[in-house]
User: Which sequence fits this backbone?
């Protein structure tokens, strides 16, 4: 091995000249340059053996290695000597530089000629060091103090070790680690530069910037800032409250533990954001993004594009923004907003607030007591209060052709404007079709079903619960189903069927057709010319105003024609018939009937035991 002091020959001369006796009593004082050269000579040593050049400092030094025009290795601008001779750059295969205990500046950027393109190793030492790599694949180790590491060109490995370091990978596929020493905590700044870089912040509050290609950034412990820049980047905040922005490219952004702020980027690339544990803010930006808040009370915004948004555990707020979005609140009391587009919203477990916004949306409450709104635009929405659970839901359809399904629970449904379809499901439901020609079915439970404005079809349900049906304005069809139901046709030419059960049926204004069905029913035709059929059972019928047609059917019926020229038929059974005012046509039918007439009526006692007044 050849080992030589860098300025050996020069130092020997300086020492000899310093020991000479000076004439005229004059003592020579070394210049600043001479003092510097002596210090460098004493603190920097070089060893060259079998193609390996090793340069070591024992103090606080500035070390710059390069090559001159003759292809010789230079140190701080002078030709380096080792073992009394110079070193050719093309003979050097590896270069290792180690700084001393002070503040070192080690610069290998001068190793940039073709003959000097080496894979360098630079160790900074214990001081505040500045390390600059060259063109090769360099390894830079910063030491224990605040260091600055620049990898330069090549695929470099930069390790800050302890303290708050600044690392710049430069050109190439670089690996940067802010705190490579176990247990070290430093607030590091890492910049990958161009190339596919890997960055690890470690402990402390770190700042990581990826550069222009496909980078992998991991903040580690602490409250970190991660910026992906261009390219398809992988960002992981780790522990702590992190701020992450994937920027351009199709990025994967993970918050990890802590309350994190995640952005996918403003470009149209498709990003994936995962909040992890904690109360996180997620913004997908433009593109078809995938957002998952994880556990915690998260705020998630899809932005532009067709996004998929999952709330996870916690009380989450989800906003799809523009585009055809899918949203699932997960467990917890969540708030879901579809925004513009054809959206699919599912509240999941919990008491959820959901608004489909503009567009033809599908809104499902899931289990829990949910409040669902289809939106105020004219699109056709589908609202489902239940999808496999129980809950008391509130639903508003909007102004389109909406479908509302309350499912299990005591639900309140309002179709709003448009021709809507409402299903109450199990439970005591309140259905209101609103404006438009609506179809409503209370299904199981004691339901209240109102048609609102328009020609509506209302059904109380097939179970034996007692339903209330109100046709309101329009020509409505009402079917009470089984149970003791109350039906009111309201204004318009209505058709009302009580079906089985003891029903109360009111025709209201208009030319109505009322059918009591089975059971002892109470029927009133109201104003105008109505047709009433009591069906089976002991029915009570009043035609009201107008020229009405009343059919008692089977049973002991009480029939009153009211005002107008009415037709009254008692049917089978012992009936009580009163034509009321007007020239009525009365037929007693089978049974012992009691018929009252004002003298203007035509009475036909069809049965053998009919009695007339």
Assistant:
């Amino acid at each position: 091995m050849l080992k030589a002091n860098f300025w050996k020959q020069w130092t020997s001369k300086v020492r000899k000249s310093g020991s000479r006796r000076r004439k005229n009593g004059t003592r020579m004082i070394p210049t600043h340059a001479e003092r510097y050269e002596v210090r460098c000579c004493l603190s920097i040593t070089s060893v060259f053996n079998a193609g390996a050049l090793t340069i070591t400092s024992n103090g606080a030094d500035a070390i710059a290695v390069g090559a001159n025009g003759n292809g010789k290795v230079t140190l701080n601008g002078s030709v380096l000597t080792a073992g009394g001779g110079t070193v050719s750059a093309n003979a050097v295969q590896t270069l290792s530089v180690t700084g001393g205990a002070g503040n070192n500046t080690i610069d290998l950027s001068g190793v940039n000629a073709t003959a000097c393109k080496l894979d360098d190793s630079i160790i900074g030492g214990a001081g505040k060091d500045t390390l600059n790599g060259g063109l090769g694949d360099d390894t830079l180790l910063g030491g224990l103090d605040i260091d600055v590491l620049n990898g330069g060109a090549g695929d470099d490995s930069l390790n800050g070790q302890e303290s708050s370091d600044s690392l710049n990978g430069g050109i190439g596929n670089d690996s940067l680690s802010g705190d490579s020493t176990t247990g070290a905590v430093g607030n590091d700044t890492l910049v990958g530069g161009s190339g596919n870089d890997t960055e690890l912040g470690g402990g402390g509050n770190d700042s990581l910037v990826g550069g222009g290609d496909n980078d992998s950034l991991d903040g580690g412990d602490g409250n970190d800032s991660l910026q992906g820049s261009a390219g398809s980047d992988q960002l992981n905040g780790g522990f702590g409250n992190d701020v992450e922005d994937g920027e351009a490219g199709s990025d994967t952004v993970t918050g990890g533990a802590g309350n994190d702020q995640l952005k996918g980027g403003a470009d149209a690339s498709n990003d994936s954001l995962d909040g992890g544990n904690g109360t996180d803010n997620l913004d997908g930006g433009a593109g078809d993004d995938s957002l998952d808040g994880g556990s915690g009370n998260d705020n998630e915004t899809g932005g532009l594009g067709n996004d998929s948004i999952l709330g996870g555990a916690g009380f989450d707020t989800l906003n799809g923004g523009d585009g055809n979005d899918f949203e699932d609140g997960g467990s917890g009391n969540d708030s879901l907003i579809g925004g513009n587009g054809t959206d699919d919203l599912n509240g999941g477990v919990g008491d959820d607030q959901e608004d489909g916004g503009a567009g033809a949306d599908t809104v499902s409450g899931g289990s829990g007591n949910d409040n669902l709104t289809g939106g105020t635009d004219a699109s056709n929405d589908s609202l489902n209060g239940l999808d496999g659970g129980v809950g008391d839901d509130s639903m508003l359809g909007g102004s389109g052709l909406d479908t509302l399904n309350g499912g299990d629970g005591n639900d309140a449904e309002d179709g709003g404007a448009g021709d809507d379809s409402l299903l109450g499901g199990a439970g005591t439901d309140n259905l209101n079709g609103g404006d438009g020609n609506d179809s409503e079915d209370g299904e199981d439970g004691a339901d209240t079903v109102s048609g609102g404005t328009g020609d509506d079809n209302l059904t109380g349900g097939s179970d034996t619960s007692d339903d209330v049906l109100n046709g309101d304005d329009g020509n409505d069809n009402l079917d009470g189903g089984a149970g003791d139901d109350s039906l009111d046709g309201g204004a318009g030419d209505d058709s009302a069927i009580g079906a089985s059960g003891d029903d109360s049926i009111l025709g209201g204004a208009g030319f109505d057709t009322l059918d009591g069905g089975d059971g002892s029913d109470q029927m009133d035709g109201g104003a105008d010319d109505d047709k009433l059929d009591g069906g089976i059972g002991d029915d009570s019928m009043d035609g009201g105003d107008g020229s009405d047609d009343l059919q008692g059917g089977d049973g002991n019926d009480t029939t009153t024609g009211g005002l107008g020229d009415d037709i009254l038929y008692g049917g089978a059974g012992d009936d009580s018939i009163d034509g009321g005012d007007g020239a009525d046509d009365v037929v007693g039918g089978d049974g012992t009937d009691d018929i009252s007439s004002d003298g203007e009526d035509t009475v036909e006692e069809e049965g053998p035991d009919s009695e007339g007044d």
